[in-house]
Amino acid sequence: MGYHLLDPDELDQWDDRPTDVRSLSAAAGYEYQNSKIGFRVYELAPGEQSGLAYHYHDEQVEAFYVLEGTLHVETPEEEFVVEADQAFFVDPGSPQRAYNPERADDSVRVLAVGAPSVDDAHPYEPDEG
């Protein structure tokens, strides 16, 4: 059996992304590639997005749970506004861009889950629909 108690505030920046991201799954020993789950906490200042630009995944399901603030998720059909204590799920093949608008007054803190944790993201150009 294995158990891992982690505090995201005690973890280092996960990678070279321009936003604050802490990987709980990596700290627990789950590799980034081909793991059953990716589990990260993002702190997005006004004008920042959650790591990836507008994109979609072949097989990964993404879920965003807003801990503090308001997350905006742009999709081809509409923009969703996700408030604190709400969750937003993205099915494979569904383009999205999660971000905190430049006009926002505060940062947004988000728990992001990707399952499985695979590097299957593809850029999405809205004009190419």
TrEMBL record:
Keywords of this entry: Metal-binding
Domain Cupin type-2: 41-111
GO molecular function, one term: metal ion binding
Superkingdom per UniProt: Archaea
Pfam families according to UniProt: Cupin_2
Keyword flag Metal-binding: yes
Keyword hit for Metal-binding: yes
PANTHER family documented for this protein: OXALATE-BINDING PROTEIN, SLL1358 PROTEIN
Name the record gives this protein: Cupin domain-containing protein
Top-level taxonomy: Archaea, Methanobacteriati, Methanobacteriota, Stenosarchaea group, Halobacteria
